[in-house]
Write a structure and sequence with these properties.
By secondary structure, the chain is an alpha+beta fold. It has helices at 23-31, 81-91, 106-111, 150-153, 186-191, 193-197, 294-303, 305-308, 346-360, 377-381, 387-397, 406-413, and strands at residues 16-18, 36-39, 53-56, 65-67, 72-76, 93-94, 128-134, 140-144, 162-169, 171-172, 175-185, 202-207, 212-221, 237-238, 262-263, 283-290, 312-320, 335-342, 366-367. The longest helix has 15 residues, at 346-360. Strands 11, 12, 13, 14, 15, 16, 17, 18 and 19 form a 9-stranded antiparallel beta sheet that branches. A 5-stranded antiparallel beta sheet has the order 4-5-9-7-8. A 3-stranded parallel beta sheet has the order 1-3-2, with no helix packed on it. A hairpin with a 4-residue loop joins strand 4 and strand 5 (72-76). Helices cover 23% and strands 24% of the residues.
Length: 415
């Protein structure tokens, strides 16, 4: 095979892509593999998923089953969030949150702690109540929330085995409305940070690090309580037309704004499932910072704004709640996630990324696992209190390093 990731910036070196049609075939394949990794929807921007051989789960039965009594849904891990949402809609239930893209696979998003936004919302991995994975020996391991090592298994980075099924928390379906505000002064954001990020159930801010924050997207659950944000938002004015996160781009592929109510799955993402969100000709990075240091960290980034803008399409600011998952960027702390959508020129982006990571070094920035960053395993280890426990868990479940690759050694495990 010769295939690339979604952005086209990484070509997989694997010679073969397996598509087993049953769990038994997958277990046999894994047990006989030398080096193998699971490949999801290819929305990662690095070699995190690469190996000598790759396996896709899209041939395995999805088997979506909602347990209304337990408040959970069980599903094949290769399913994408947009596809899952259609089944949940028919069952009258919903997930608590979604990422900006509904096109990503559930297993891949969980393994990398991908997230949406919201002061009280954890990343997508925090919805996992149980999982099944095939370990290096071909054994099928099952684990549920509260079991020993469960908090280490969930955000597994593909290092522990091939996750085949997931059980996620669900709740009764709900409606969401989305409004966009334009021109938020930085001074207003710093003075009213908690009020701005708390103006809705899920709030995203888009900026190019200029004189003001260009856009604030406020997604509010429809309840008996009045909307918190309708008029001006601390100096930002309501948009009168739908917007794209990158100003000047047609918003046709974005989810409806202007306060038009719709199902949770059609408002929490920024982009519609039926549309390709972009051509993919971009690179992405993201760093998670302690929420309590948000203003200081944002000021540090504003100081290098002139270096960021020439290679930047847009930055997005989101908040994510703390959790106890060992390799989650939110482990033990509420965070501010600072996302960067770059142009597709890595040679131009790389030196700027070095300056950016230097500017954030004092804040213990934890990078998004599925995106591009420069920090090595030695730096990463110091930012994750349970890093050693995770490395030992990987060694126990995969003593021969079947699921280890160059990216894991360089960025996470060392050696």
């Amino acid at each position: 095979m010769k295939q690339t990731n979604w952005a086209g910036n990484h070509t997989y070196r694997a010679a073969v892509l397996h598509r087993p049609a049953s769990l038994e075939q997958l277990r046999e394949l894994v047990a006989g593999a030398g080096r193998l990794r699971a490949l999801g929807s290819r929305h990662s921007f690095s070699g995190i998923a690469d190996s000598d051989e790759l396996v896709s789960l899209d041939g395995l039965p999805a088997e979506v089953a909602v347990d209304h009594g337990a408040g959970t849904v069980s599903l094949g891990a290769g399913l994408r969030y947009g596809e899952l949402a259609e089944t949940l809609k028919a069952e009258g239930v919903a997930l608590a949150n979604l990422a900006s893209l509904p096109h990503i696979s559930v297993a891949g998003a969980v393994a990398t702690a991908t997230h949406g936004s919201g002061d009280a919302n954890g990343n997508l991995a925090t919805a996992v109540a149980g999982l099944e994975l095939v370990t290096a020996s071909g054994e099928l391991l099952t684990a549920s929330r509260g079991d020993p090592d469960f908090d280490g298994l969930v955000v597994g980075l593909g290092a522990l085995g091939v996750v085949t099924r997931l059980t996620l928390d669900v709740e009764p379906a709900y409606q969401v409305r989305q409004r966009t505000f334009e021109g938020l002064p930085w001074a207003s954001l710093f003075e009213h940070f908690d009020e701005v990020t708390g103006a809705g159930y899920s709030v995203s801010l888009f900026t190019r690090w200029g004189p003001a924050v260009e856009q604030v997207w406020v997604k509010s659950r429809i309840t008996a309580e009045p909307e918190r944000a309708r008029g001006e938002l601390f100096g930002a004015v309501p948009a009168v037309v739908d917007r794209h996160p990158i100003l000047g781009i047609d918003p046709v592929n974005c989810t409806p704004q202007l306060g038009v109510a719709g199902p949770w799955s059609d408002r929490l993402p920024h982009f519609r499932m039926g549309f390709t969100p972009s051509s993919g000709e971009e690179l992405q990075s993201e760093y998670h910072l302690p929420r309590g240091q948000a203003a200081t960290a944002l000021e540090a980034l504003r100081r290098i704004g002139d270096r960021l803008r020439p290679v930047l399409q847009v930055s997005e600011l989101r908040t994510v709640a703390a959790d106890r998952l060992w390799m989650s960027p939110q482990y033990g702390q509420d965070t501010l996630a600072v996302h960067f959508t770059w142009g597709p020129d890595w040679d131009a982006v790389r030196p700027v990324l070095g300056e950016l990571e230097a500017a954030l070094a004092d804040f213990g920035a934890r990078p998004h696992w599925g995106k591009l960053f420069l920090a090595g395993a030695a730096t990463i280890a110091g930012r994750y209190p349970r890093h050693g426990d995770f490395a030992r868990l990987a060694g126990r479940l995969d003593p021969g390093g079947v699921f280890t690759n160059a990216w894991l050694r360089e960025r996470v495990l060392g050696g």
